[in-house]
Amino acid sequence: MTDFNLKVSNKLNFVDVELEQIKENNLYRKLRDVKVNNAYITIKNKRLLNLCSNDYLGIPITKIKINQMQSSSRLVSGNDEIYKKLEDKLSKHKSKQASLVYPTGYMANLGVITTIAKKGDLILSDELNHASIIESCRLSGAKILVYKHNDIEDLTKKLNQHGKNKLIITEGIFSMDGDFSKLKEITDVSERSNAITVLDDAHGDFTVGTDGRGTPNHFNVTKKIDIYISSLSKGLGSFGGYVSSQNNVIDLCINKSKSFIYTSALPSFLIQYSLNRMQINREKQRKKLARNTSILTNGLKQLGYQINSKTHIIPIVIGNEKIAMDFGKFLLKKGVFAQPIRYPTVPKNKARLRISVTAWLSKKNIDDALNIFEQAQKKFKI
Ligand SMILES: Cc1ncc(COP(=O)(O)O)c(C=O)c1O
């Protein structure tokens, strides 16, 4: 951190106390200076294999001209026509009437959930849902019932409680466990109780389903998803977030969602960038991602790691936070960069190494990584 020998204020001493507590619990995080180069990451001149990127498809950078830099709210400064082009394309991609781009996926969750849900409504939320969903549900004022992860019986039971509108909110591919949600069963239950199904498919969008249409396509339930929320910053390798739904929902979001109205729009060149990337045929990359996922998953299983994920997010659950950190440090020393994930991102004592596979990796990269995981297994016996 920068330190210009500037004086600090005693009024903020409590901050040190909090930081100390975080450190004592092995939960301290700090930013690490790295240089990212596709399959590799460089830290202090040491080149490491990059196993923690969400740029799953590894589509090479596409060139754009940065000649437009809109920097105000779209309602105030006028709506650049490039937005309409991207939103039309996203609507087609999701087979929905309309779409709306937000600055990030986080802000899309915040904007959409607080627009649709309100006091008197009932939200059923999977216990492993992303922090942005949890935060948005709390802000909405609706009653929240958290159901056990992917547990249809628990969900069905909790749906019996009263709510003016009932919303079921789940992820498509869970970001820290890498498992699919039981979308077929969830949409069946939802239909039976006339609930609104809201899906955050940040990790399934562009990566799974025919033409990368996401988890609903993978499970053949596209028509049953009422509100689809996603990120442009993962599978598409661009930046931003969006929602696709029916016209009136998008209309209400434009009129009501604060994270759309009271913030600057993404600059037009980023919208153009997403649009360009949507026009690229991504099939080859998707196949490579599936191949890499299969080689790495099978290789890790053969080494004795317990892997339950069937997707490109592969967690190695370790439990203890300190051991997870030591495991990560060992990998780093040997040449693999993958993040240990701890509380509050995952529950306490469920610390894990989150591996994310990308199409950037070659077969040789994966073999090298497996070699290092073999050494780690001998040392840590996980
Ligand atoms: C499930 C899920 N939803 C939403 C987000 C937020 O997306 P963005 O990075 O575009 O803000 C993430 C990001 O990690 C995520 O994992």
UniProtKB/TrEMBL annotation:
Among InterPro entries, the record links this protein to: Aminotransferase_I/II_large, AON_synthase_class-II, PyrdxlP-dep_Trfase, PyrdxlP-dep_Trfase_major, PyrdxlP-dep_Trfase_small
An example of a Pfam family matching this protein is Aminotran_1_2
Q: Which residues form the Aminotransferase class I/classII large domain?
A: 48-371
**SUPFAM superfamilies per record:** PLP-dependent transferases
Q: Name one GO molecular function term.
A: transferase activity
Question: Keywords for this entry?
Answer: Pyridoxal phosphate, Transferase
- Cofactor(s) named in the record: pyridoxal 5'-phosphate
Specify whether Acyltransferase is a keyword of the entry.
no
Family, per entry:
Belongs to the class-II pyridoxal-phosphate-dependent aminotransferase family. BioF subfamily.
Q: Please state what the protein is called.
A: 8-amino-7-oxononanoate synthase
